[in-house]
Amino acid sequence: MRRRIPQEKKFISDIAVIDIAEEGKGVGKTDELVLFIDKAIPGDIVDVELIKKKKNFAEAKVAALKKASEYRIDPFCEHFGVCGGCKWQHMDYNGQLKFKQQTVDNVLARIGKVDTSIMEPILGSGETEYYRNKLEYTFSNKRWLTSVDDANEGLEMNALGFHVPGRFDKILDIDHCYLQQNPSNAIRNQIRAFAIEHQISFYDLREHAGALRNLIIRTASTGELMVIVVFAYPEEGQVELLMNYINSSFPDIDSLLYIINQKKK
C-alpha cells in the first residue's frame, strides 16, 4: 500500500549510496528504510527526496549531490536522464562491470545458494557506443517536452524516438542516439523531416489514429542494412511517397520493407 509521506519526513540528508538496483537506481539505507534512489551511484553522498514510501523501503530522487562517487562521470548523450534507453551513462564502464558482477554474485549466492568462488569476472564489451544492431523507434504526435522545449514557443509536437519511462503515450524526440552506428541517425532524422514536410501524420497512441507508427533499423555484422517502416492508417499515396523517398535517399539499404499494423496493442 502506498503511504502518504509527511512533508517533514520527505527529505533525508547525507545518504551514502552503497549498491545498485534495477532501472538505474542506487541503493542507500537509513535506520528504518532501504532507499532506491534514481540516478544515484555507489560512492555518492546525497540528500534525497522521497517519492514513494512503503513499510520497509522507499523510492527517492537526488535532491542534492553532497559528494560525487569516484565512478561518476558526465554522460555523453544529450538525452540521458529523460530517455529510457540507457541507465548507467553517468557511471564509468569499469564501475558498471564491478557492481553488476557484485549483483549477480549476490543473487546466485544468497538466493540460489550457489558457490560463486569460481565465478569468473564479467567479460566487458570492447565498445560502449554504437554497439547495437537493431533499434525500434516510435512515431507520436504527442512529443514529450523537456525543460528546454518548454521555453520554445510553436515547437513541433510530432516526435520520432523512444518512450519516456512510465509513459506509454509520450515519445522523446531523438536527435542523436549513440546505440547504433550510422546511417541510423541520418535515416531516422530524414524520415521524420520528410514526413513533417509532406504532412504524413504521426501515430496517436491514445486515439489509435495516424499514418506512421514505428521505424525499425537493423545493421547486420555483414554490413547489410535493413529498414522497416510500420504504418497504421496511411492516406492514399503516402506509403509509396515515403518508401520511394527512403529508397532514393539511402541507396545503401539492402532490404527496405513496410508493414501495415492497425492493432491497438
Automatic annotation (TrEMBL):
Keywords, in A-Z order: Methyltransferase, S-adenosyl-L-methionine, Transferase
Signal peptide: none
Domain of life of the native organism: Bacteria
Entry's Gene Ontology molecular function annotations: rRNA (uridine-C5-)-methyltransferase activity
Biological process (GO), any one: rRNA base methylation
InterPro entries in the record: NA-bd_OB-fold, SAM-dependent_MTases_sf, TRAM_dom, U5_MeTrfase_fam
Keyword Transcription: no
PROSITE patterns, per database record: SAM_MT_RNA_M5U, TRAM
EC number annotated for this UniProt entry: 2.1.1.189
Residue ranges constituting the TRAM domain according to the UniProt record: 2-64
Keyword Methyltransferase: yes
Gene3D superfamilies for the chain: 2.40.50.1070, Nucleic acid-binding proteins (2.40.50.140), Vaccinia Virus protein VP39 (3.40.50.150)
Enzyme class: transferase
Family: Belongs to the class I-like SAM-binding methyltransferase superfamily. RNA M5U methyltransferase family.
Protein name, per record: 23S rRNA (Uracil-C(5))-methyltransferase RlmCD
Source organism of the structure: Sphingobacterium spiritivorum
